[in-house]
Design goal:
Helix content is 58%, strand content 5%. α3 packs parallel to α5, α12 runs antiparallel to α13 and α15 runs parallel beside α17. It is mainly α.
Length: 549
């Protein structure tokens, strides 16, 4: 742009000069070697301008001819370099695509066109081609050579770090990351790797110091740096809680200043205050975190902070948490659980139902089953809520890289990433009728409370029915084990009336060949089977006695 402006200004100046001369005509006389040369001033100026232009043209031609060998060499060298860079670019693209054959071919072509000392990317292309072909030792040697060169030191250290992690050599990878972070603290990957390694080994103070250096060098954002520092302080406080509760409390409070919603830090600070018997400050810390992000672990510590409280006292503390965050599923669940412990079943049921309508999940339906079991003992309703718990989404927990943990951890056990654990559902569920709990349907299909059965009066047992056999006719005399003799009864002259039987006598069922026995005639004054009694108009006939044996 400056050259263009200069050219325009120069042209304007020349034009202005010629116009100025045209407005002031004159004659120029020159005597040279006895000859008088006269011309106008404009012609003289024009001749001078043409002479200057001719001299400049001749100088350019002379310079071009004089420097033509060098220009020719430079042209062919630039062309060769361009071809080499084209081969290098093609080789890097082939290496990125996983084409080892093309990468090797382009490497050889680039080495023939460009010197490796002039272009360090050739070493990188060779290392990448060796990695694709599985020649890891050759690739490591290339990266080590690059790490010795000041121009490619950072690239070589990164390659060595990646290879060490791939082979599982964590100590070597940590060493490479430490070297890179020491020589180039502005590298994000080196700083992050060194920070993770120090956190994995429990060097919390060194990790915090390195994090402060990264923050000062603007390697990461301020918000991210403060969050990671809060996590490191929480991990440090957790290690000091048993031996140094006061130091753990200070670190946890400092972490809460950097990340106000960090529940693990609030729990550590509250536990330290409880050990110092300072329940008021412990409750204040837990309440401040509960207002921002309600957490079940915070509720559990808050409700049971005082060991001597009754179930009613714990219920009142749970209701205080609900007042801080009304219409929240964690608040409702906490009150419902405390109400169940206090045997206030109506309140427990209403709060649990409200929590289920807001966020149906496994623990809420299990709590509903406990309420039914404790109040009514109705196993039908208990089984109903248990079935809903099987279909409901799982409860949230601490999850990092697909691993669920019962407690919070500062780093991931899989990748070593700092601040990897999140409070969420441990795994996703497939959509479908068995996984999606319909709360309205669950309450609509709840069976009614079964009424207890009233005891009934025992009914008289029916008389036992004897099998249809031919049983013997057993008399009272035979039953008393007295010598039995055939009893003869007079046969009636006109009517046939059988002898009356006693109440203990068991009559045999009628046979087809025998006549049906008639009902005994009541007798007053003596037993009907008395052999000495005779009826009027009857004759004595021997009575047939059947024996079983």
């Amino acid at each position: 742009m400056a050259k263009i402006l200069t050219f325009i200004v120069l042209v304007l100046a020349i034009g202005f000069g010629f116009s100025w001369l045209a407005d002031r005509p004159g004659v120029l006389s020159v005597v040279w070697q006895g000859q008088l040369i006269e011309m106008s001033l404009m012609v003289a100026a024009s001749m001078v301008a043409v002479l200057v232009a001719a001299v400049m043209l001749l100088w350019w031609l002379f310079a071009a001819i004089w420097t033509s060998p060098y220009a020719a060499r430079r042209y062919f060298r630039a062309r060769k370099r361009d071809r080499g860079y084209q081969a290098l670019s093609t080789g890097l693209i082939a290496a990125g695509a996983g084409n080892a054959l093309m990468a090797r071919k382009m490497t050889a072509r680039a080495q023939g066109l460009i010197s490796a000392d002039q272009e360090p990317l050739i070493h990188l292309l060779e290392a990448q081609a060796a990695l694709i072909e599985g020649k890891y030792d050759e690739a490591r040697r290339k990266f080590e050579a690059m790490a010795q060169d000041p121009e490619t030191r950072e690239l070589g250290l990164r390659g060595l770090y990646i290879e060490a992690r791939r082979q599982g050599a964590h100590e070597a990878a940590m060493q490479y990351a430490e070297d890179a972070a020491e020589k180039a603290p502005y590298l994000p990957w080196a700083a992050q790797a060194a920070l993770e390694f120090r956190s994995r080994t429990g060097q919390w103070d060194d990790a915090i110091r390195l994090l402060d250096q990264q923050k000062a060098a603007h390697v990461m954002d301020r918000g991210e740096a403060e969050r990671l520092k809060a996590v490191l302080l929480t991990a440090k406080a957790n290690d000091k809680l048993e031996g140094d509760p006061k130091g753990a409390r200070d670190d946890a409070l400092q972490a809460l200043k950097l990340a106000k919603s960090l529940a693990p830090a609030a729990l550590i600070a509250a536990k330290a205050y409880i050990r110092e018997d300072n329940l008021r400050k412990a409750a204040s810390v837990l309440e401040s975190v509960w207002k921002i992000a309600p957490h079940p672990e915070v509720a559990a510590v808050y409700v049971r902070a005082r060991s001597g409280d009754t179930a009613i006292d714990r219920l009142k503390r749970a209701e205080k948490l609900e007042a801080l965050r009304p219409n929240n599923v964690e608040s409702l669940f906490t009150v419902a659980h405390a109400a169940l412990d206090a045997k206030e079943f109506a309140k427990a049921r209403s709060k649990a139902e409200a929590a289920a309508r807001i966020e149906p999940r496994e623990s809420i339906f299990l709590l509903m089953a406990d309420i039914e079991d404790s109040e009514n003992g109705d196993q039908g309703r208990v089984r109903h809520w248990m079935a809903q718990a099987l279909r409901a989404p799982r409860d949230p927990s601490w999850v990092a890289d697909g691993i669920a943990s019962e407690k919070w951890l500062p780093i991931s056990p899989v990748t070593g990433r700092l601040d990897a654990f999140e409070w969420k559902a441990p795994f996703g569920q497939i959509e479908g009728p068995l996984e999606n709990a319909d709360v309205k349907e669950a309450f609509a299909s709840l069976p009614p409370v079964a009424k207890p059965a009233t005891p009934k009066a025992p009914e008289p047992k029916p008389a036992a029915v004897k099998p249809i056999d031919i049983p013997p006719v057993v008399t009272v005399a035979e039953k008393a084990e007295k010598p039995a003799k055939p009893i003869s009864t007079p046969a009636p002259a006109q009517t046939s009336t059988p002898a009356p039987k006693s109440k203990e006598t068991i009559a045999a069922p009628p046979l087809a060949e025998t006549a049906k026995e008639e009902e005994p005639v009541p007798f007053f004054g003596g037993l009907p089977d008395d052999p000495g009694v005779k009826k009027a108009g009857s004759e004595q006939e021997p009575k047939t006695r059947l024996k079983l044996f």
